[in-house]
Design a protein that fits this description.
The protein is of the alpha+beta class. The chain has one domain: Translation Initiation Factor IF3 (2-Layer Sandwich). It is 26% helix and 32% strand. A four-stranded mixed beta sheet has the order 1-2-4-3, with helices on one face. The longest helix has 10 residues. The two termini are 21 Å apart.
């Protein structure tokens, strides 16, 4: 089961900071599941530059689920 963090409702920049902190201990095979209340476009830019891939799913309640894995 993937580690999961819920950053819904946190004010900026806390969601970004919490995701970055949660990514640090992951091994290359792990996936981090993030629940967030909006699409984090600045996070996507950081992930792209740092060698991560992600899959974003819009949830029926308007929140988003993001699965993040390391590509490099």
């Amino acid at each position: 089961m993937a580690p999961c963090i819920d950053v819904r409702g946190l004010p900026p920049p806390e969601p970004f900071e919490n995701v970055i902190r949660a990514l640090q201990p992951l091994s290359g095979e792990d996936t981090l599941k993030v629940l967030i209340h909006r699409e984090p476009f600045p996070l996507y830019e950081m992930l792209r530059g740092a060698g991560y891939a992600w899959q974003t799913t819009a949830l029926p309640n308007g929140d988003f689920e993001i699965l993040i894995t390391r590509t490099a």
